[in-house]
Amino acid sequence: MFPLLPLLPLLLLPSPSSAADFCVADFSGPTSPLGFSCKKESAVTASEFVFSGLGAAGNTNNIIKAAVTPAFAGQFAAVNGLGISAARLDLAPGGVVPLHTHPAASELLVVTQGVISAGFISSANTPYTATLRKGDAMVFPQGLLHYQVNAGGITAVAIVSFSSPSPGLQITDFALFANNLSTPLIQKVTFLDAEQILKLKKVLGGSG
Amino acid sequence: MFPLLPLLPLLLLPSPSSAADFCVADFSGPTSPLGFSCKKESAVTASEFVFSGLGAAGNTNNIIKAAVTPAFAGQFAAVNGLGISAARLDLAPGGVVPLHTHPAASELLVVTQGVISAGFISSANTPYTATLRKGDAMVFPQGLLHYQVNAGGITAVAIVSFSSPSPGLQITDFALFANNLSTPLIQKVTFLDAEQILKLKKVLGGSG
Amino acid sequence: MFPLLPLLPLLLLPSPSSAADFCVADFSGPTSPLGFSCKKESAVTASEFVFSGLGAAGNTNNIIKAAVTPAFAGQFAAVNGLGISAARLDLAPGGVVPLHTHPAASELLVVTQGVISAGFISSANTPYTATLRKGDAMVFPQGLLHYQVNAGGITAVAIVSFSSPSPGLQITDFALFANNLSTPLIQKVTFLDAEQILKLKKVLGGSG
Amino acid sequence: MFPLLPLLPLLLLPSPSSAADFCVADFSGPTSPLGFSCKKESAVTASEFVFSGLGAAGNTNNIIKAAVTPAFAGQFAAVNGLGISAARLDLAPGGVVPLHTHPAASELLVVTQGVISAGFISSANTPYTATLRKGDAMVFPQGLLHYQVNAGGITAVAIVSFSSPSPGLQITDFALFANNLSTPLIQKVTFLDAEQILKLKKVLGGSG
Amino acid sequence: MFPLLPLLPLLLLPSPSSAADFCVADFSGPTSPLGFSCKKESAVTASEFVFSGLGAAGNTNNIIKAAVTPAFAGQFAAVNGLGISAARLDLAPGGVVPLHTHPAASELLVVTQGVISAGFISSANTPYTATLRKGDAMVFPQGLLHYQVNAGGITAVAIVSFSSPSPGLQITDFALFANNLSTPLIQKVTFLDAEQILKLKKVLGGSG
Amino acid sequence: MFPLLPLLPLLLLPSPSSAADFCVADFSGPTSPLGFSCKKESAVTASEFVFSGLGAAGNTNNIIKAAVTPAFAGQFAAVNGLGISAARLDLAPGGVVPLHTHPAASELLVVTQGVISAGFISSANTPYTATLRKGDAMVFPQGLLHYQVNAGGITAVAIVSFSSPSPGLQITDFALFANNLSTPLIQKVTFLDAEQILKLKKVLGGSG
């Protein structure tokens, strides 16, 4: 009844495509300040929009009894350019995600199991802390120091999302004690005692 | 030992504060293109960064056997200005979130219970579909039509996050059939038959 | 009189150039989340900033009696990175641009000939409709469903501009009926009857 | 058949609304760096999304034989926050839009009548010029000096759009000669002769 | 000779003004996620674009022998909305700006007197350090931990600029030890010993 | 005491890296609308975050007795993608930076030696001028015409920063008189007399 072909040109805009819909990361291409290069749309399959890594518990058999499983652009190529990413957080009893920041994103955490004590500290040095139970959400504004601690008797699990495909993760202790920054310099810029610094460098693999 | 007071001015920058850390929504103030006005920082308490509404199952006793519980800026004032928000999705057996878009955000869904069949359609009219189990994540690029359907025998639950504090939600059926757009106009712009339109208008409360 | 050469270094900043002025698309290079790669400035000519395709009427000899002639970044390389693009809309008598969205841009339409009935529907399902005559402009906010219909006896023409070089275009009918999404799934996510779906799939070339 | 009411809560998200869809300017409220305050959505009518001022020819009975009729956020409240605006340009025979910039937007011009000679100059001082006929489009990158001149025997008309609701408009001659900047200062920063400056100050209403 | 009045309407666009040029902060109005409200343009004077506070040495008579004099939007109203701000840094001999971040901005430091040893640590825990002499510039990427230390025998001075009018400032030591976060919690999230924590809380005025 | 290895996976996120921390320009790669490609993080050294070119006086032995030494992304690769850049300004006695704009950035100037008279002109043609002494700062909003003139008896020096890594620089006189734009066209779009134009073309190297 209706002639079909004359309609198609309306939709099939002349290539090249414009990357307006999505930009699944092509890790073999150059990166730009806004993220990875885009795979050609014709090479993108539905499965690339799915990330299954958040289904399994992370390995919490470590000193912090915690695991963060990221689904950032580096692991979940489809979020590249879309302004969002996620991670799974596992906290065994006694577990802790030490004080850290995400330099490039705000974080929104939703507890799916257990109890988590969490908090962040503002630029005015005011702490904002809360005890979160299953289903509770908490938001941590961009770039501010924050932490999560298991506050219950069982493993706690949370789904966290970020306002960037590449939020970054800077754990204060690792920034200070897991590299070769000299102990006198660390003393100078943190007021910590040398013994304290050397003790933590030993734990975290730092030298100097 | 150390003189304390001379150090404080370094931190206590002269007010007024700059809203750089966060901007908890003040719903009584004016809105700007980027969101709600900010509450004064001195009036903000830790509990405002916590949202507990995602802990309880939504009421799925409706025709779509589904419920969306939003934690957008309108409900969760602390996400205002932070580039992120969340929601809980409950899908009873047989439940469906009908075809819809978020005009202002990409969505990242993580299944926390059950099985969900989901998909989106690109500007090139290509469908990208997947079956998601507990722990699976899927990303839906900004502004594109997508849906979620319970694909298992039990209620499915998902935590969804968005790349905007106010992602918007436009359900195609409601946009078409739940208002007074005239049936001839809808026919004209959708190619649907009048009987079909009138049938759905009746279901969804539309007139005309 | 004035010594010329010493002044030149002020202007001729050392290369490489910074792409600050413009970024004419190089379709042979990689794409980033923000658009196409830039041609080298030395290879860009004045004619690349001109697009002549909007001068000729589009072919409206099709089922919707309409034609959209895009000048997006994919067709008009010079708008890449500049936050704007355009298109020409031709609507023969009886013509219609079916319900659609632009996932990545707001649209501003200016009627240059004839009469157009247009409208968009908000997230709150409220329709905003108007009859537009020559010289009238209407703005369609980003990502919302909208349509344009010829409301006069002669061909209507409009110049439309977009707040993105790559606004995207998702026509609801084509997203639903011009691909292989299964009829039961479409029923499920749209409440449409199977007969209606099959009828439109036949018209628009879909299967399943 | 279907129970209607239980479905509605899915759509009718609890107020306050989130300003995600649009932000029609409320000129009585405060302005933010991103634009005007938003009118309450319940007070916004369809007619506010329509601007009729571009339909009538501007008055070109002036020294430049030209008129610019803006539909910026200040005149067309609905474009506030939407990243786009427009204007109509009328150029009588001999008419000119003198050298100017838009500090906050790129411009895309489409000729709808007559012939226009236009050009812009890059940071590298390279001119990019073209002769534009009906239907031709040209893009002027953000912040760069550009001009439009009638290059035909009849009045030329163009529809111009901008990548900002408030593009700004700085005409070089008016910036220099239509205020009280002192003649010696203008000499110093432009190398122009005092006689030339005084002559143009007289024409354009400047003093000093 | 030239008729003046007909030209003026081209320039004097109908008010209200659009805030496109600048948005000098009105501290008495509401704040938005992007910054302070704008003063009316007619009330803005030239002197508001000038900030004289960077001319005088800050008071370094404190435990860190350092002073930061900010010219952020809170102090220098004219930078509101303009994407930039500045500060003066004074480091007496032995002075230090302790480890800190700017949650919302990158920093660019230019030494104007003396010698400064500075560094930042990346998300990968890699330190990037340098010794900076008069005229040397160093950039510190957004949100990353960094420090500055006087590395010469005389007072060092630097002009620092930021990519935001409200960069924020979070000094790690003050975030940890200048408030009432409990010592056991700090132990838990930093691995520091209780004695160390209590010692620094005493110095910096914290409790708990 | 603490087992070290199990902790490391928390930090050492699987490569590829995400470019979240910084994006030092790789001038050999393609450019995107937002800037240069990023060097691989493993190839970036600390010295790349330091720029020493601002330490030496620029050569002011030219007709404007001024020199601008840029540290834009093209010269200082580390600022690429970080939203900031800088430059040094030297103004010998009698020196001037002629009227110019930065199409893509606001500018913040801090005087470090001497006296500078500076000003900008708004879209409303209002001049905002000031006399700046050592330590005074002035901000010039994006895209607006501005100038700097030595207003003292000694060489004046300033550190200027910009809200973009690639602010651009368009000097009005050079845009008009240092290329081959025809004299009649310049007359037409500036109202300047032909003699004046020809005189300045001769000085600045233009033809036509």
Description of the molecule:
Six copies of one chain form a homohexamer. The first copy, chain A, is an alpha+beta fold and 208 residues long. The first copy, chain A, has helices spanning 8-11, 172-177, 183-190, 194-204, and strands at residues 25-32, 35-38, 50-51, 66-71, 85-91, 96-101, 107-113, 116-121, 127-132, 137-140, 146-150, 156-162, 170-171. In chain A, the strands form three sheets. A five-stranded antiparallel sheet of chain A has the order 4-5-12-7-10, with no helix packed on it. In chain A, a hairpin with a 2-residue loop joins strand 1 (25-32) and strand 2. The longest helix of chain A is centred in the last third of the chain and has 11 residues, at 194-204. Chain A is globular. Chains in contact: A-B, A-C, A-E, A-F, B-C, B-D, B-E, C-D, C-F, D-E, D-F, E-F. Chains C and F meet through helix 1, strand 1 and strand 2 of C and strand 1 and strand 4 of F. Strand 3 (50-51) of chain A pairs antiparallel with strand 10 (137-140) of chain B. Chains A, B, C, D, E, F: One of its GO terms (molecular function) is manganese ion binding. Chains A, B, C, D, E, F: One of its GO terms (cellular component) is apoplast.
